[in-house]
């Protein structure tokens, strides 16, 4: 993991390189539409308030639960007992990123969504909330965390979500067996190079032309930057969009040439 100074420098470099986020100079019609209709959509929905209400509930929950450590990405070091409020504060995606996940899932009318890394279910709720979504499978290794997520997702009446417990190394194949060819895959756990590439390849085996993959924390460490570069180079990848905190990967054959965009968000 990069230290805070290294990460800040990377962020500044990203801001200097990135397109301005209004779509100027973006010649791909698909990406221009993505910027204007998805990235810059500021509409507010009641469902966002409900999910943020759930986040508030978690942030006030001082109960301690046992958390098994899986892979990289834990901001807690080796501690195995954590307060729910601390997990919510450190692991959950921000409201801004959550709304982006909702809009991607909704705008591209995703029906089947797969998530690696449920934690307490905040990003899961954003991904699952659009009416187009019929089924979500989300994977979580830490048992007590998965249980709390189930309770929260039920309170949000998101019964289309199934939380699958266990190591991604075992559960990803099960999930893809139960829900082949997901429309949207969000990878937000085990931020290391080798597993990230392995999960990418595994998901790619059943991906369709319209599938959208989103990888979290692509600039978080040297390892993750290397994984992101390898994903960009993969022959089946036709377009990538780097938003710094997440990277979006598209496979549409209608992109005649491979293109990589860095866009301010
Ligand atoms: C950053 S958190 C996910 C945050 C969540 N997506 C959100 O925004 O609310 C990553 C989660 O992935 C889980 N995880 C990491 N590596 C895993 C693995 N190899 N198998 C199962 N779960 C894993 C961790 O236990 C943790 O809860």
SSE class: alpha/beta
Rg: 18 Å
Q: What would CATH call the class? A: Alpha Beta
- Stretches with pLDDT under 50, minimum 5 residues: none
- Integer tally of domains: 1
Strand and helix order: HHHEEHHEHEHEHEHEHEEE
The CATH topology is given as Rossmann fold
Using the 3D structure, state the CATH architecture: 3-Layer(aba) Sandwich
What is the 3D form? Answer: globular
* Sheet with the most strands, sense and barrel status: 8 strands, mixed
> What small-molecule ligands were found?
S-adenosylmethionine
CATH superfamily: Vaccinia Virus protein VP39
Strand order of the largest sheet: 5-4-3-6-7-9-8-10
Helix count equals 10
Got a strand count?
A: 10
Describe the structure.
The relative contact order is 0.15. This protein has a single domain (4-42, 92-262), classed as Vaccinia Virus protein VP39 (Rossmann fold). α6 links the parallel β3 (112-116) and β4 (135-140). Helix content is 43%, strand content 17%. It is an alpha/beta fold and 265 residues long. The chain contains ten helices and ten strands. The protein binds S-adenosylmethionine. S-adenosylmethionine is lined by residues 70-71, 73, 91-93, 117, 119-120, 122-123, 139-142, 145, 167-168, 188-190. The site of S-adenosylmethionine has 21 residues, from α6 and β4.
């Amino acid at each position: 993991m990069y230290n805070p100074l290294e990460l800040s420098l990377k962020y500044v470099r990203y801001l200097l390189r990135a397109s301005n986020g209004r779509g100027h100079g973006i010649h791909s019609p698909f990406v221009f539409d993505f910027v204007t209709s998805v990235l810059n959509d500021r509409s507010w929905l009641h469902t966002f308030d409900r999910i943020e209400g759930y986040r508030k509930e978690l942030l006030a929950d001082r109960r301690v639960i046992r958390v098994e450590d899986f892979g990289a990405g834990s901001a807690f070091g080796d501690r195995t007992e954590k307060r729910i409020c601390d997990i919510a504060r450190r692991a959950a995606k921000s409201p801004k990123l959550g709304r982006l996940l909702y809009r991607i899932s909704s705008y591209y009318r995703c029906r089947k969504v797969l998530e690696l890394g449920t934690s307490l279910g905040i990003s899961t709720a954003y991904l699952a909330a659009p009416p187009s979504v019929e089924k979500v499978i989300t994977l979580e290794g830490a048992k007590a965390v998965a249980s709390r997520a189930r309770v929260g997702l039920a309170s949000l009446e998101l019964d289309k979500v199934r939380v699958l417990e266990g190591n991604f190394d075992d559960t990803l194949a099960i999930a893809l067996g139960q829900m082949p060819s997901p429309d949207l895959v969000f990878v937000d756990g085990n931020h290391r190079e080798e597993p990230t590439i392995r999960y990418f390849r595994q998901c790619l085996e059943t991906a369709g032309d319209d599938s959208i993959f989103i990888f979290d924390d692509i600039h978080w460490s040297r390892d993750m930057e290397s994984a992101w570069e390898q994903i960009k180079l993969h022959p089946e990848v036709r377009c990538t969009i780097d938003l710094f905190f997440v990277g979006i990967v598209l496979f549409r054959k209608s992109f005649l040439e491979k293109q990589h965009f860095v866009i301010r968000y």
